[in-house]
């Protein structure tokens, strides 16, 4: 056997193998584990150029997997825009955004990561952002991606007016005068971003490399990117082809309510075929059935007590859910559903139940993500249908 490049010994190495759950030493060659065993057995694989490390009895775990993350988009956002994750007050928001604007000479000022549990339509609007950025358009996006806010010049730049109709599954918030407040909900965020200068593929590639380095520093070797489209696939494939993608990325590709079933299936089959090997693959279909509780776009069985109109609709009709889930299940795609409210969770389970009735049972690993609310009557259906609860 060839000698090892690296040997770790005198450690508690967890193998995830029930027959041999823990070993003392590990040998690595060409970036892959070549052997596990006792200190003496593994040290015998050392050669003149082998690097030895004494683990000093410390615990060594296999790489962690993050099963719901938006690696490419978040990597670009957090590495290249104002990070608002730790902002807690209106004055802090103004100061943070203004400081970023002062050191970044861009046509637009962008920020990301503010929390919708702290900032909302009652305290975040164009007037607050005008204090931070009076001379350029500005857009800041919430940590969950379901809310964003424009300043006055940003509102003008994207052409948002008092009479601009809401996009499908989106909403423009208006102030007491009827003018846009700057706050955007759900697909209104994408509506605005489509009218702004877009980051380049190189920007997103740099974002992936930044996020990948962060993941590796924290022990992560694989992730699920939970919403990809054509650009994401293009960037990941390019990085993989150049040998720069060292993280294993499984991806779930977005399906929207605008799609026909046939077009969506054809698109995702193309993605899957283009990523059939290596460190990047598309293996599932992503559906957003509702929004989030904070802006009252989560679909609930019982009506909201503090919202005119009482409830938020599902973002797909029940007929669409049934037809699309059945079609993707038949093509052996995993189905990955964003569902916050109990109505959305039930609708997702109904769609998966229909797919199972039509197509039969197979180890699909369909999953519902988030599940902040669930009717107790629906809990047992997860086991009955073989559906995974991805509570992130």
* Morphology: globular
Q: What class do helices, strands and sheet pairing give? A: alpha/beta
The largest sheet has its strands arranged as: 8-15-16-17-18-19-20
Tally of structural domains: 3
Oligomer: single chain
What is the rounded distance between the termini? 44 Å
CATH-wise, what's the superfamily of the largest domain?
A: Metal-dependent hydrolases
Number of strands: 20
Fraction of residues in β-strands: 25-35%
- What is the residue-mean pLDDT, rounded to a whole number? 96
Number of DSSP helical runs: 12
Name the poorly predicted regions.
none
The CATH topology of the largest domain corresponds to TIM Barrel
Tell me which CATH architecture of the largest domain applies here: Alpha-Beta Barrel
Q: How many strands, what sense, and barrel or not for the largest sheet?
A: 7 strands, parallel
The level 1 CATH classification of the largest domain is: Alpha Beta
Radius of gyration: 24 Å
How much helicity do the residues have? 25-40%
Describe the protein's architecture and organization.
The chain has about 400 residues and is an alpha/beta fold. The chain folds into three domains: about 5-60, Urease, subunit C, domain 1, CATH 2.30.40.10; about 70-195, Diaminopimelate Epimerase, Chain A, domain 1 (Roll); about 200-390, Alpha-Beta Barrel (TIM Barrel), CATH 3.20.20.140. The protein contains twelve helices and 20 strands. It has helices at about 40-45, 70-80, 90-105, 125-130, 150-160, 185-195, 200-215, 230-240, 260-275, 320-330, 340-360, 375-385; strands spanning about 5-10, 10-15, 20-25, 25-30, 30-35, 45-55, 60, 65-70, 80-85, 110-115, 140, 145-150, 170-175, 180-185, 220-230, 250-255, 280-290, 335-340, 365-370, 390. Strand 18 (about 335-340), helix 11 and strand 19 (about 365-370) form a beta-alpha-beta unit. Helix 10 (about 320-330) crosses helix 11 (about 340-360).
């Amino acid at each position: 056997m060839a000698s090892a490049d690296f040997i770790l010994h005198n450690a508690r190495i967890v193998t995830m193998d029930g027959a041999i759950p823990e070993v003392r030493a590990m040998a690595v060659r060409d970036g892959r584990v070549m052997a596990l065993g006792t200190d003496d057995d593994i040290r015998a694989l050392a050669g003149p150029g082998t690097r030895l490390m004494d683990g000093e009895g410390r615990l060594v775990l296999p790489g962690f997997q993050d099963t719901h993350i938006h690696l490419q988009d978040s990597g670009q956002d957090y590495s290249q825009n104002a990070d608002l994750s730790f902002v807690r007050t209106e004055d802090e928001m103004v100061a943070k955004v203004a400081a970023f604007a002062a050191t970044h000479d861009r046509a637009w000022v962008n920020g990301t990561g503010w929390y919708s549990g702290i900032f909302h339509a009652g305290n975040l609007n164009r007037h607050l952002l005008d204090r931070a950025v009076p001379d350029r358009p500005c857009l800041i996006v919430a940590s969950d991606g379901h809310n964003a806010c424009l300043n006055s010049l940003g509102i003008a730049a994207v052409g948002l007016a008092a009479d601009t109709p809401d996009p499908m599954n989106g909403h423009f918030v208006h102030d007491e005068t009827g003018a846009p407040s700057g706050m955007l909900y759900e697909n209104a965020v994408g509506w605005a971003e489509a009218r702004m200068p877009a980051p380049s593929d190189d920007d997103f590639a740099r974002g992936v490399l930044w996020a990948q380095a962060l993941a590796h520093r924290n022990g992560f070797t694989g992730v699920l990117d939970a919403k990809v489209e054509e650009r994401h696939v293009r960037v990941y494939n390019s990085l993989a082809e150049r040998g720069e993608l060292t993280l294993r990325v499984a991806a779930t590709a977005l399906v929207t309510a605008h799609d026909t079933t046939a077009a969506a299936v054809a698109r995702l089959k193309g993605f899957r075929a283009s990523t059939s090997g290596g460190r990047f693959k598309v293996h599932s279909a992503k559906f957003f059935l509702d929004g989030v509780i904070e802006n009252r776009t989560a679909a609930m069985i019982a009506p909201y007590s503090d919202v005119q109109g009482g409830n938020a609709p599902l973002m797909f009709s029940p007929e669409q859910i049934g037809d699309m889930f059945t079609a993707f299940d038949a093509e052996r795609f995993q189905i990955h559903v964003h569902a916050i409210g109990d109505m959305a969770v039930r609708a997702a389970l109904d769609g998966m139940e229909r797919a199972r009735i039509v197509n039969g049972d197979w180890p699909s690993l369909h999953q519902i993500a988030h599940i902040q609310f669930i009717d107790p009557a629906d809990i047992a259906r997860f086991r009955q249908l073989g559906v995974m609860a991805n509570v992130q």
